Amino acid sequence: MTRIHVTDVVKDYAIRTGLRRTRLRAVDHVSFDLIPGRTVALVGESGSGKSTIAKILTRMEQPSSGTVDVRLDDGNPVRGSLYRRQVQMVFQDPFASLNPFHSVEHHIARPLRIHGRTRTAAETRERVLQMLERVNLAPAATVAGRRPHELSGGQRQRVAIARALAPGAQVLIADEPVSMLDVSIRLGVLNLLGRLQREDRLAVLYITHDLATARHFSDEIIVLYRGRIVERGPSDAVILQPRHDYTRLLAGSAPDPERPGRVTADAVVERDAIDNSTCYNHFTGEWEQTGGTGGSR
Ligand SMILES: Nc1ncnc2c1ncn2[C@@H]1O[C@H](COP(=O)(O)OP(=O)(O)OP(=O)(O)O)[C@@H](O)[C@H]1O
């Protein structure tokens, strides 16, 4: 099995404000591990750096500093084509992530062939049908011949999940996988991800702004605010006893006005007043400093 160790990752983007070129720190000294059979939820509002972390893990972006170390159980590093096979992503938008000109079969057969999972056309076809059945798309032979526009959003997302698993994924990065789906079918897709995770002992990073599903579908929650981790711990602890003002805000409960140096209930409405220089770690029961010498944005 494969595990990922993210250590002290920073991502800066060069941006232009007016005539000035400046730097925007999207991810600020973030560390966490993804291990087989466990789901970590990365929670935060828009702009907190969640997608940037997903892009770094799937090598669409390079970190400005820090390391992403991917290793097999025996300690050997996972690189190159093995990395591309084993670390897969499910995107937010099932309408944009599938090619409208290709059949469902093509979408799943392609990674099977490219990554050498099947040898003959017959074997590929059989595997495609098996994958469709695994994601509860039936009848598989009919669905295989369909094009994306003939499917509902939920069905498309199931195809995207089958496509991600086809190369032999061991690590799944699910970036807001249900936020664009009808509320009524979200649970079904999340339950499917949960079942596949258990069956294949996948290491899953579940990116969401929804604390309720984060609690239900993950073992650990990491709360991200302005690129920094401000709270982390077992899912129940983070949700039931949130300690950081930002987590409390997300959870809809008032911050603790008694805590020195923290914002008051009134001020918390002003997001900018929230301090992200400390992180509450439920695993150690301690407050830790966040960020490095580079400062935050
Ligand atoms: N290519 C880029 N160039 C410049 N800035 C970027 C780039 N990509 C992201 N950012 C900025 O980095 C910050 C973090 O963005 P990111 O997309 O990672 O946040 P997010 O938490 O995933 O938000 P969302 O839920 O809206 O996707 C934002 O301020 C964003 O504007």
Bound molecules: adenosine-5'-triphosphate
Tally the structural domains: 1
Low-confidence parts, pLDDT < 50 over ≥5 residues?
260-269, 293-297
Strand content: 25-35%
Shape annotation: globular
* Radius of gyration based on Cα positions: 20 Å
Give the total of beta strands: 11
Please outline the major beta sheet: 8 strands, mixed
| Distance between the amino and carboxyl termini | 37 Å
Whole-number mean pLDDT: 90
What's the helix-strand series?
Answer: EEEHEHEHHHHEHEHEEHHEE
CATH class: Alpha Beta
Number of helices: 10
Strand order of the largest sheet: 5-6-7-3-8-9-10-11
CATH homologous superfamily identity: P-loop containing nucleotide triphosphate hydrolases
Structural class: alpha/beta
CATH architecture: 3-Layer(aba) Sandwich
Helical content class: 25-40%
Looking at CATH, which topology would you report? Rossmann fold
GO molecular function, one term: ATP hydrolysis activity
Protein name: Dipeptide/oligopeptide/nickel ABC transporter ATP-binding protein
Domain ABC transporter: 4-251
Pfam families: ABC_tran
